[in-house]
Amino acid sequence: MKSDGLSVDEYWRQFGEVRGKAQWSGNGYQRERESSKVDDDGNVGQSSMHLKGKPHLVAMPMLPALLDVDTLGDFRDERVHRARSPNIYEGPMLLVHQSPPAHSGRLN
Fold it and tell me: Ranges of Basic and acidic residues compositional bias (predicted)?
């Protein structure tokens, strides 16, 4: 996807970089699964309270170029496999479980 001639990566890097990666970017969360470890609180997986209520974009084969965020549901999972650092969720106002595959050409 391009906007004003910039790729998504180029656009995102305008907001800063940390260790060669776009600031506020990362692998995101992983859904809880059988291999999730028991956390310090005695529950399987990690708490996702810092993600709850954020707009959540569910993975689908083709996404529209423009999204109406008012149509997105909120993130509701109580626990995740691995939540990652809360800092990567501060900048974006949208959680994406799985990005479109690069081979689709939608991110170039």
Answer: 30-40
